[in-house]
Amino acid sequence: MDYNSEAIRRHRESRGKISIASKMTVETADDLSVAYTPGVAAVSMA
């Protein structure tokens, strides 16, 4: 198998190969602050 050609083909088909999705709805700056910095610090220190 030609892994390079296959990787390029699949990348073109899917417009990328890997995605990251939020488990919570992030619609506002406040939502993002809770999900990410500084909200993540509270979870890390708990």
TrEMBL record:
InterPro entries: Aminoacid_DH-like_N_sf (IPR046346), Malic_N_dom_sf (IPR037062). The lineage of its organism: unclassified sequences, metagenomes, ecological metagenomes. Gene3D superfamilies: Malic enzyme, N-terminal domain (3.40.50.10380). One of its GO terms (molecular function) is malic enzyme activity. This is Malic enzyme N-terminal domain-containing protein.
